[in-house]
Amino acid sequence: MITEFRKNHILGVARKLQQLSEQFFPNNEEKAREMFLIGWLHDFGYEFVDKNTVVDHPFRGAEILNRTGFKYTQVIAQHGDPEIKEMSDELFLLNCADMMTGPNGEQMTLAERVENMITRFGENSEAHLKAIKMKNLLEQDPRYNKIK
């Protein structure tokens, strides 16, 4: 289910993704709008999973979007997965925006987001360990220098 906090996070990611897109793809307003939509849709799969299967939310959302012919279904499906080694620009920017937006939509650094995961889930939690991997992956990507 999408909670009030999740709604705030979704909107925060959408706005951050649009901002990052404007930096990454200058003078391309259409792309910035598409990126906002990707951010808006990235977590809607939470509505269709229960609390025991929240890790499946990207796939559930992508599955639904795929039936509509949405252009960026794969980006939605792969977001948040630090094991994806080759990220499209759209997936890279979505992962950055997601990691730079807190659970209530507040903007934060990648390091702050990792710390936030400790507070919310615990130091040895899967969520925290994935956040560390994602942070390192994003910071090591040469594209990160274009947006930080």
Describe the 3D structure.
The protein has 148 residues and is mainly α. The chain is 61% helix and 0% strand. It contains seven helices and no strands. The longest helix is centred in the first third of the chain and has 21 residues, at 4-24. The radius of gyration is 14 Å and the shape is globular. The N and C termini lie far apart (32 Å). The relative contact order is 0.14.
Question: In angstroms, what separates the terminal alpha carbons?
Answer: 32 Å
Unreliably modeled segments: none
Tell me the Rg in angstroms: 14 Å
Helical content band: 55-70%
Number of strands: 0
Overall pLDDT score: 96
User: Which secondary-structure class do the elements indicate?
Assistant: mainly alpha
Number of H- or I-type helical stretches: 7
Largest sheet: none
What is the global morphology? globular
Please give the oligomerization state of what you see. Answer: single chain
Q: What amount of the residues lies in strands?
A: under 5%
What is the ordering of alpha helices and beta strands?
HHHHHHH
Short description:
The chain has 7 helices and no strands.
Structure keywords:
single chain, 148 residues, mainly alpha
Chain-wise SSE layout:
Blueprint: H1 4-24, H2 29-41, H3 57-68, H4 73-78, H5 89-99, H6 110-121, H7 126-140
Helix pairs in contact: 1-2, 1-5, 5-7, 6-7
